[in-house]
Amino acid sequence: MRPTESFVGQPIRALQAMLRVIAEDDPSHPSLVPDGIYGPETMAAVSHFQRRHGLGVTGVTDLPTWETIVAHYHPALIRVTSAQPLDIILESGQVLCKGQCNPHVYLVQAMLAVLSEVYHSIPSPTHSGLLDDATSDAIAMLQSLSALPMTGEMDKVTWKHLALQYPLAATRSAPGR
């Protein structure tokens, strides 16, 4: 899907792109290839949308139809695209050490718990927000598996390895897999 900015000055293509996202989110809507031409396929998709959303069925994109499409497009786009990434913010040179309590440690502990289900050599940490012995041991084992110095502390390099391993482990440990 091209960024919205690429459709500036191309309202038909923008309409088609929004209808395509809505169809990806709700397959009962017909899918449409954005070609910039308001032809029979676009009219049919607009008519279908109008019918489904209680608008006058004309196949023409009037202002109420446009506004309703936009209102359905934004939440649909969130549902069909990847989840918003989360960047942990460690200050330059900041290291989370044993004995520290920090909100980031909750994230680290949750991610290490998932890794421990897949990589049985990583012990499951506690869930306290405190970088305790169990959490430090789990971090040290992750560091060992990542060929990093085994400090048991969470620095930016260790975070990077944790963040790279977590999606793989989360996918493998998901229910039904």
Give a structural overview.
The radius of gyration is 24 Å and the shape is elongated. It is mostly helical and 177 residues long. The protein is 53% helix and 0% strand. It starts with 10 loop residues before the first helix and ends with a helix.
Layout: helices, strands, pairs:
Elements: H1 11-25, H2 40-52, H3 63-80, H4 103-118, H5 133-145, H6 156-173
Helix pairs in contact: 1-3, 4-5, 4-6
CATH class of the largest domain: Mainly Alpha
Mean pLDDT: 91
Helix content: 40-55%
Oligomer: single chain
Number of strands: 0
Spatial gap, N to C terminus: 29 Å
User: What class do helices, strands and sheet pairing give?
Assistant: mainly alpha
Determine the strand fraction and express it as a percent band.
under 5%
Domain count, please report it.
Answer: 2
CATH architecture type of the largest domain: Orthogonal Bundle
User: Roughly how many Å is the radius of gyration?
Assistant: 24 Å
The backbone outline, from C-alpha atoms, is: elongated
Find the CATH topology of the largest domain: Muramoyl-pentapeptide Carboxypeptidase, domain 1
Number of helices: 6
- Major beta-sheet overview: none
User: What ranges have pLDDT less than 50 throughout 5 or more consecutive residues?
Assistant: none
- Give the helices and strands as they follow along the chain: HHHHHH
Features:
177 residues; mainly alpha; Muramoyl-pentapeptide Carboxypeptidase, domain 1; 2 domains; 6 helices; 53% helix; elongated
